Recover the amino acids of this structure.
């Protein structure tokens, strides 16, 4: 799946009410002015919203109707999938490369179906989670390059920072 800048800007507009009508340049300026200590949190938030958008789009390509909830902080689940025997199913998405983060969420909500990044699905197995077919690193790169002008990589500064402060992302 090819994630483009416009997808990242759409995720920002969806997740930040104050930037809902902002131009791409205004969004870039906003993130250029944020406290560097909060960058990891912003990236994680935007990456999660972007993951929702990309997964719903990927399902549509497969002929599966799905939708995001209006609120980006919907309790427990992130998207609705329509059809099947139950009519509507709700799924929680996890845009991360942290197995422990996902397994903790699964233990907290054992009745919920989880769709995860390809890296996590490879480690946990598709009998346990749904492989969204989207790589965590692709999401990180898209957000990092679009909004922060940096390439984020698995051994880069953002990964090191999140490791040091214990934030999975």
């Amino acid at each position: 799946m090819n994630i483009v800048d416009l997808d990242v800007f759409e995720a920002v507009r969806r997740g930040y009410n104050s930037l809902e009508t902002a131009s791409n340049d205004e969004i870039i300026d906003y993130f250029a002015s944020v406290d560097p200590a909060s960058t990891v949190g912003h990236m994680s938030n935007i990456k999660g919203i972007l993951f929702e958008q990309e997964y719903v789009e990927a399902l549509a390509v497969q002929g599966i109707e799905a939708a995001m909830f209006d609120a980006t902080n919907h309790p427990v689940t992130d998207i609705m999938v329509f059809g099947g025997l139950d009519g509507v199913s709700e799924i929680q998405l996890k845009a991360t490369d942290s197995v422990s983060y996902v397994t903790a969420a699964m233990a907290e909500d054992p009745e919920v179906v989880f769709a995860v990044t390809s890296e996590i699905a490879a480690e946990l197995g598709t009998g346990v989670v749904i492989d969204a077919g989207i790589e965590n690193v692709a999401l990180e790169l898209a957000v990092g390059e679009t909004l922060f002008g940096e390439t984020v990589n698995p051994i880069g500064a953002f990964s090191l920072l999140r490791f040091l402060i214990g934030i999975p992302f």
Notes: Residues 151-157 have pLDDT under 50 and may be disordered. Helices lie at 5-15, 24-32, 39-61, 99-108, 118-124, 136-148, 157-165.
